[in-house]
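thread: overnight batch results

M.L. [08:02]
morning all. the overnight job finished for the chain we discussed friday. pasting input first so we're all looking at the same thing
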Amino acid sequence: MRRHIDGQQAMFVAFNIEEKSHRTIRCEPSRADAILKGMSRDFNKAYGHIGRIGIPPESLIKALLLRAVFATPSECRLCEACSFNILYRWIIDWPIEKPMWTPKAFSMNRQRFEKHDLVNKFFERVVSEGIADGLIDDDDRNGWSSSKGQKRANKTHRSVVDPDARLVQACRRPEPNTNHRPQAESGRAMVVASAWNLL
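M.L. [08:03]
and the structure it wrote out:
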């Protein structure tokens, strides 16, 4: 028997998000939660005890993990996806009824995270647990250890997609030509300098 579309949608819906997401998700929030819980002292050192209450650092780190796992191209796209994706909100522990934060939240906390090395500490613990649980083999471990703290170069880093690709070499910023169209050349130099700063 044919079913017709019901134009009257339900106003309230109740369901268990874990039952709908455990087969489709590619990361384990419970493992990340356990590691982040053990970093509570690190978070207390990074954040003050007075002032306006901000976004939990656990949610920010899990959002960055979410961006890496699902290959989200930018923080803007990540915030946009989290604003309507219930699965993403469940991963980062952000209530559905609350508005999603803006990419400015990452910018405001980036310096704090770098100063206290929070992301690297989280990554170190993830790797340690992976090795202890047998999820990381010797090849992965040796590859990660050899590249850690190593300056990127064509000898040490090779593109999997395009083996012939090479890293861009740093160059000096071109000097503006004062004898020929000074404004245009000066503007071009500023563009080149800005581009290198983004790399």
